[in-house]
Amino acid sequence: MRPEIRFVDVDVFGHVNNAHYLTYFEQARVKYFDDIVGWKYDWSKQGIILARVEINYVVPALFRDEVVIMTRCSRIGNKSFDLEYRMVKSENGKEVLLADGMTVMVAFDYITNQSIPIPEEWKKLLLQYENGLK
Fold first, then answer.
1. Is the model more confident about 38 or about 119?
2. I need a surface site. Which of 22, 24, 32, 101 has the fewest CB within 10 A?
């Protein structure tokens, strides 16, 4: 996923403000679910909710940087799963890690307002993609 770094994302030092990384990771997560995993259902009934986020800032991202965020599912539990993110740019033909992170996502029933076991179909789709079977 290639987020666009907007001028408004940059602080007075010319760096992307740390809070915007959360937005970039969110965009990558939505794209992961929509494009790669292909989940097409009513998110207002059952879906996922963010339970935890970690970000490691390595090298500042700048306004004109063209960045890529790679997303993968690294763990699937009973009610939750982990997504890992790597935000990189290319510099002099080499990949430069800008930041990496992880989110814990919880399967959630928005009608009952409770966590639920991850539906088997979701697990199957995640495993198929992560194992290159899609």
1. 119
2. 22
- Beta-strand relationship, 46-57 and 114-115: unpaired
pTM of the model: 0.89
Rounded to whole angstroms, the Cα distance separating 21 from 26 reads 8
Tokens of 9: 């994302």
DSSP for residue 79: S
80 in Cβ contact with 104 (< 8 Å) = yes
**3-state DSSP assignment of residue 12:** coil
Which tens digits make up the pLDDT trace of 24-41?
A: 999 999 999 887 777 676
Indicate the DSSP class of residue 17: P
User: In the numeric block, which tokens belong to residue 91?
Assistant: 């510099």
> Which residues are CB-neighbours of 34 under 8 A, at least 6 positions away?
none
- C-alpha–C-alpha distance, residues 98 and 95, integer Å: 9
Q: Which residues contact 12 (CB under 8 A, 6 or more apart)?
A: none
DSSP 24: H
